[in-house]
Specification:
Helix content: 40-55%
Distance between the termini: 29 Å
Radius of gyration: 22 Å
Number of helices: 11
Strand order of the largest sheet: 2-1-3
Order of helices and strands: HEHEHEEHHEHEHHHHH
Number of strands: 6
Strand content: 5-15%
Largest sheet: 3 strands, parallel
Structural class: mainly alpha
Shape: elongated
Length: about 270
């Protein structure tokens, strides 16, 4: 959060348009757990391209979805691809160590950090550090930027490269347009690298597998939500939890052992994401 992702994308879109590429941007904003609304401010930061017919920008709310994305993001990406956009950029919400659904959607993952992130490199090892294809230290004019970049390079250098690709660590000042050309070059280089040999199909297979798991998880979540509202059997269990007669974990085990959830799932079909 606050790494300047939208400003970075705005500058990157300008470079892409200068070479004639059409662009689609899907910017995901968090939904408030209290009001259910979302700020959807990303289009405000990208107003320079709002009247350009070669650029389509859409803000999407998470609406309770975990992982830093919206549940409809895969369908939206497929739609922009089918519409003929040369490049589709997905901006996830500011994410942490485990909110990594972007890896199941994007061909190239760019992790954007700021100098203030320097003390958290160790924390990110098991998450963002593993999915990044490119690192960008934005707001590089701030104190500690070089130290952060060095820490990332050290960590990247100690890991085995992914399919022969070692994630570069780039510096940028997006609000000044500095470092954007180098990012554009790195994106092009990774595209060539990832689409050669078996790497592309391996990544596609992994994305399809993760999407399959997500479809199952979403279906189960929907079934449980409907059961809470509609099932008399579940309502009886909930009343026992509310009264303190049983604890939530024992009640959940009881529901899972019964055939209530199974009956609900057999009546459902998962909504396709693309």
């Amino acid at each position: 959060p606050g790494a300047g992702k939208s400003t970075l994308i705005d500058a990157l879109v300008q470079v892409l348009r200068s070479e004639g590429s059409t662009v689609g941007v899907l910017a995901v904003d968090p939904t408030s757990p209290f009001s259910g609304g979302a700020v959807l401010a990303d289009r405000i930061r990208m107003q320079a391209h709002s009247l350009d017919p070669g650029v389509f920008i859409r803000s999407l709310a998470t609406r309770g979805a975990q992982g830093g994305l919206s549940r409809v993001i895969r369908a939206a990406v497929a739609l922009l691809d089918a519409s003929g956009r040369d490049v589709v950029i997905v901006e996830s919400v500011g994410v942490g160590q485990t909110e990594l659904d972007i890896a199941a959607v994007a061909d190239t993952v760019v992790v954007t950090l700021v100098p203030e992130s320097g003390d958290s490199v160790q924390v990110m090892k098991a998450g963002l550090m593993e999915i990044a294809d490119i690192f960008v230290v934005n707001k590089a004019d701030r104190r500690g930027a070089n130290r952060l970049a060095a820490a990332i390079r050290t960590e990247v250098g100690s890991n085995v490269s992914k399919d022969g690709w070692t994630p570069p660590v780039l510096m940028s000042q997006a609000h000044k347009g500095e470092g954007i050309e180098r990012l554009h070059e790195a994106l092009a280089q990774h595209r060539v690298q990832s689409q050669s040999g078996p790497q592309r199909e391996r990544r596609r297979s992994q994305q399809r597998r993760l999407e399959f798991i997500r479809a199952i998880r979403d279906s189960i979540e929907t079934a449980v939500e409907e059961m809470v509202l509609e099932s008399d059997e579940l309502g009886a269990v909930m009343r026992r939890v509310e009264s303190g007669e049983t604890d939530p974990y024992s009640a959940a085990s009881e529901v899972l052992r019964s055939d209530v959830l199974l009956r609900r799932l057999t009546k459902m079909s998962p909504k396709p994401s693309r």
